[in-house]
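pls design
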């Protein structure tokens, strides 16, 4: 009786293991670099994550025992920001304080996250939630220039795949990694909100739009030389206007009151 039960159990375990092996084969699961998962679904192109896994792993330079302090100037800024919020809603200042952390040291280590939680008197998990949600939060050092290449649909239709390869080549850095000279890090991100000017890359605070492969090399080389290239559309057009000039809204807008019914205009005059 007991041996019969054990045999059934063993068969079930073997079946589950076979299924897992089969699934792994189908999904073509690979680990391309430490902490970065890279797998292929049955119905999609290879999916490259824009950021590391949403977990923290203690490292020598990023663990809760590494001290973090705000500078005096930043502490004053933070106090001024917190005062803008009603008592009890100070947690709403988290985004601005995280921005200050990132501008102070270039990234947001775990000890800084704990410091912010302590300042705002909120549980640490609220800060973890925040930093793992936004792709602009750098939870590991991402070089001096963090190059984020948009790969959402409009940018993809305008050739972001080629732009990704050009960025990797120009920065000598692969997606998810940091260049050997710690100058550049490259990540893929979702829509940057500038689809009318696709393809788009964002480097720190600047957007470079309507870029070509030539522009990519030019921008990266300029940054390497210690200069900041002009941001915005790289093909010479103004904002999202047509490159050949305006095709609509070419006249001055009508005066206020234009198109109002006559009877309403009378009433307006009487007033
Ligand atoms: S899809 Fe690239 S900016 Fe929107």
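designed seq:
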């Amino acid at each position: 009786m007991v041996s019969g039960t054990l045999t059934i159990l063993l068969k079930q375990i073997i079946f589950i293991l076979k299924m897992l092996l089969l699934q792994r084969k189908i999904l073509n699961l690979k680990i391309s670099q430490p902490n970065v998962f890279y797998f292929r679904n049955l119905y999609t192109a290879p999916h490259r994550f824009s950021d590391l896994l949403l977990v923290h792993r203690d490292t020598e330079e990023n663990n809760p025992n590494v001290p973090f302090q705000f500078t005096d100037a930043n502490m004053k800024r933070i106090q001024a920001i917190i005062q803008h919020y009603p008592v009890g809603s100070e947690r709403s200042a988290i985004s601005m304080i995280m921005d200050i952390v990132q501008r102070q040291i270039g990234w947001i280590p775990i000890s800084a996250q704990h410091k912010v939680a302590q300042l705002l008197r909120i549980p640490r998990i609220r800060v973890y939630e925040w930093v793992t949600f936004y792709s602009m939060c750098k939870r590991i050092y991402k070089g001096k220039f963090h190059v984020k290449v948009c790969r959402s649909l409009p940018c993809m239709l305008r050739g972001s795949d080629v732009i990704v390869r050009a960025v990797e080549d120009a920065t000598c850095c692969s997606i998810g990694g940091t260049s050997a000279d710690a100058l550049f890090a490259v990540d893929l991100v979702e829509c940057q909100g500038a689809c009318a000017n696709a393809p788009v890359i964002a480097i720190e605070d600047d957007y470079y739009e309507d870029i070509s492969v030539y522009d990519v090399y030019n921008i990266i080389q300029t940054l390497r030389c210690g200069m900041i290239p002009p941001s915005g559309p790289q093909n010479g057009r103004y904002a999202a206007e047509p490159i050949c000039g305006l095709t609509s809204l070419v006249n001055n807008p009508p005066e206020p009151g234009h198109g109002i019914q006559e009877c309403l205009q009378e009433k307006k005059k009487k007033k």
